[in-house]
């Protein structure tokens, strides 16, 4: 099963590492769109196409948290977002999870095992919302269970 | 720890967080065991330097210096693939390492009730480097040995400080 995910990080190396780790989770076959910062991600974001997002926090032009706010508030998007960042203080986690409805939070450095643990609940949560409709996340969650 | 100044000023209180974070991150992300050494010079060689700042209740510039062999080993172990020293990806990898170290520093400071935010990193590749600091700035620098080669980690503190390299 395919998941089209957007990976947003100003570091090309980090984008490669995230994509490789996601593929290693074997939770799905990931297809990726890359963005170099929040502004680039907003330009490339297509709600009909992007099913999950993995977003860094500290980026030039537009930070990850600014991107999340723009998606949630200005575009009313409920796309699942997992932040992958060095910002590990409780204040930042709360800002992202509670105030901006980020679905998952991974602190760098990370492993494929950590990503699996963090992404599984996100997929399960989306599946609950799509269970009756038999939508994408419902089928994926059924496959994982 | 080898120091450039005779006493640690108040601006560098908690600065041991920087060395602790660096040792931790080099160990976990690069699988590198680093051992403090007293020698102050990395040597006249190609070197990559990353600089990243923390601003808030501390005003620090944290810098890490990696000569060629150390940089290539760290970058390859961090990224999981070989990165040529001369490539743009090397700056990317070392910058990200600095970012992760700064994140670890920030978390350690936060645990002590000290709040600070992280800047974006700057990375420089150069030869025959000398780190010069503005008068009255406080700098603490520690040199390390490791299996691929030496490296150094330092922190400069003080309002309105700047670097000349």
Overview of the structural elements:
The complex is a heterodimer of chains A (145) and B (165). Helices cover 48% and strands 19% of the residues of chain A. Chain A is built from 6 helices and 5 strands. Chain A starts with a strand and ends with a helix. The model of chain A has no long low-confidence stretch (mean pLDDT 87). With 165 residues, chain B is of the alpha+beta class. In chain B, α1 packs across α3 and α2 packs across α3. Chain B is built from 3 helices and 9 strands. Chain B has one domain: Chemotaxis protein chec (3-Layer(aba) Sandwich), CATH 3.40.1550.10. The longest helix of chain B has 24 residues. Chains A and B meet through α1 of A and α1 and α3 of B.
- Using only CA atoms, what is the Rg of chain A? 14 Å
Broad structural category of chain A: alpha/beta
The CATH architecture assignment of chain B turns out to be: 3-Layer(aba) Sandwich
- Indicate the CATH class of chain B: Alpha Beta
Instruction: Please state the overall shape of chain B, judged from the principal axes of the Cα atoms.
Output: globular
Number of domains of chain B: 1
Helix content of chain A: 40-55%
Write the layout of secondary structure elements.
The complex is a heterodimer of chains A (145) and B (165).
Chain A: E1 2-8, H1 12-25, E2 29-35, H2 38-44, E3 52-55, H3 64-74, E4 81-85, H4 90-99, E5 104-107, H5 112-130, H6 136-144
Parallel strand pairs in A: 1-2, 1-3, 3-4, 4-5
Chain B: H1 16-29, E1 35-37, E2 46-56, E3 59-67, H2 68-79, H3 88-111, E4 116-118, E5 122-127, E6 132-133, E7 138-145, E8 151-157, E9 163-164
Antiparallel strand pairs in B: 1-7, 2-3, 2-4, 2-5, 3-8, 6-9, 7-8
Helix pairs in contact in B: 1-3, 2-3
Entry summary:
Chain A is of the alpha/beta class and 145 residues long.
Q: What brief labels describe this structure?
A:
heterodimer, A: 145 residues, Rossmann fold, 5-stranded parallel sheet, 6 helices, globular, B: 165 residues, Chemotaxis protein chec, 7-stranded antiparallel sheet, two-stranded antiparallel sheet, 3 helices, 30% helix, 31% strand, disordered N terminus, disordered C terminus
């Amino acid at each position: 099963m395919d998941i089209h995910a957007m990976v947003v990080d100003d570091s090309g190396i980090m984008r490669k590492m995230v994509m490789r780790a996601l593929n290693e989770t074997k939770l799905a076959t990931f297809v990726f769109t890359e963005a170099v910062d929040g502004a680039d991600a907003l330009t490339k974001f297509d709600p009909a196409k992007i099913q999950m997002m993995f977003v860094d926090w500290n980026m030039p032009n537009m930070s990850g948290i600014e991107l999340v706010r723009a998606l949630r508030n200005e575009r009313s998007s409920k796309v699942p977002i997992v932040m992958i960042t060095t910002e590990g203080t409780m204040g930042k986690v709360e800002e992202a999870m509670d105030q901006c409805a980020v679905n998952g939070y991974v602190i760098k450095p990370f492993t494929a095992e950590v990503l699996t643990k963090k992404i599984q609940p996100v997929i399960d949560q989306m599946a609950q919302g799509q269970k009756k409709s038999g939508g994408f996340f419902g089928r994926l969650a059924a496959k994982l269970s | 720890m080898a120091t450039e100044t005779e006493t640690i000023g108040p601006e560098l209180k908690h600065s041991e967080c920087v060395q602790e974070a660096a040792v931790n991150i080099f160990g976990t992300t690069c699988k590198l065991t680093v051992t403090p050494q007293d020698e102050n010079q990395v040597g006249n060689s190609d070197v990559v330097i990353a600089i990243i700042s923390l601003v808030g209740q501390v005003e620090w510039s944290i810098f890490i210096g990696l000569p060629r062999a150390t940089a290539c080993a760290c970058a390859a172990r961090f990224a999981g693939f070989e990165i040529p020293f001369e490539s743009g990806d090397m700056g990317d990898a070392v910058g990200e390492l600095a970012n992760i170290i700064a994140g670890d520093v920030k978390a350690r400071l936060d645990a002590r009730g000290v709040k600070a935010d992280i800047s974006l990193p700057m990375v420089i590749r150069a030869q025959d480097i000398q780190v010069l600091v503005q008068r009255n700035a406080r700098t603490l620098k520690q040199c390390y040995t490791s299996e691929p080669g030496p490296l150094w980690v330092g922190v400069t503190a003080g309002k309105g400080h700047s670097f000349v390299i």
